[in-house]
Amino acid sequence: MIQLFNVVLFQPLLNLLVFLYNIVPYHDLGVAIILLTIIIKAVLYPLASQSIKSQKSLQDLQPKIEEIKKQHKDNKEGQAKALMELYKNNKVNPFSSCLPLLIQLPFLIAVYQVFQRGLNAKSLDLLYPFVANPGVLNPVSFGFLDLNKPQIALAVLTGLAQFWQTKMMITKKPPAEVKKSPGAKDEDMMAMMNKQMLYFMPVMTVFIGISLPSGLVLYWLVMTLLTVFQQELVFKKQKKAEVEVIK
């Protein structure tokens, strides 16, 4: 299994990174990592879009889900039936957001392995014949950033990007005029939970980021920013589709 992982994911990504390193101006590893991230994002774009759509749909339905759970708290069978009916009426598959993420997971692990153990002379023996071996990869990027070492500033930027991404996805607190409407209490509770998650995830991102090589954190930062851009596109398409349905 490990050998298959290396052949199918680790080695191709390592070769692609070194190839990009060889062709970018001044052989800048940071630029090569950014280009690698863009390529990976492009490959996974359809899966990520499906995941974003499903997550947003489930997030929007969360107040109704909580209301159903409350109404059928002593009847698990009735609760399951009501939830399935809710998903069916809103054309939402509760598992559709998980599968794309699971498919993306091996790519994330492979990228992590590339930055953890792939940027040394021994691993460069895994290069394909048509990829020139640079002998050694200069970890200093943009003239000052050592991508082999943790960088607090880069970790903080990644945390801020994570905050931005999470904020786009959360359910907003209901306005005052609908506070007494059915399900408003559950919606308000969900908004409070989302607010906690809004700050928890960025803090965890910074905490983890300061312990990782900054090359991996740079990948994380660029991927997060690209995801923010993709979420914006997906949300605009969904909103446009909803307006067309209303018309």
TrEMBL record:
Coiled-coil annotated residue ranges, if any: none
Membrane in keyword set: yes
Main location: membrane
Cellular localization per UniProt: Cell membrane; Membrane
Membrane-spanning ranges: 7-24, 30-48, 94-115, 198-222
Gene Ontology MF term list: membrane insertase activity
Biological-process GO terms, alphabetical: protein insertion into membrane; protein transport
Keyword field: Cell membrane, Chaperone, Membrane, Protein transport, Transmembrane, Transmembrane helix, Transport
Keyword Transmembrane helix: yes
Domain Membrane insertase YidC/Oxa/ALB C-terminal per the UniProt entry, residue ranges: 30-234
Any single Gene Ontology cellular-component annotation: plasma membrane
Pfam families hit by this protein: 60KD_IMP
Membrane-protein topology: Multi-pass membrane protein
InterPro entries found in the cross-reference section: YidC/ALB3/OXA1/COX18, YidC/Oxa/ALB_C, YidC_ALB_C
Family, per entry: Belongs to the OXA1/ALB3/YidC family.
Name the UniProt record assigns to this protein: Membrane insertase YidC/Oxa/ALB C-terminal domain-containing protein
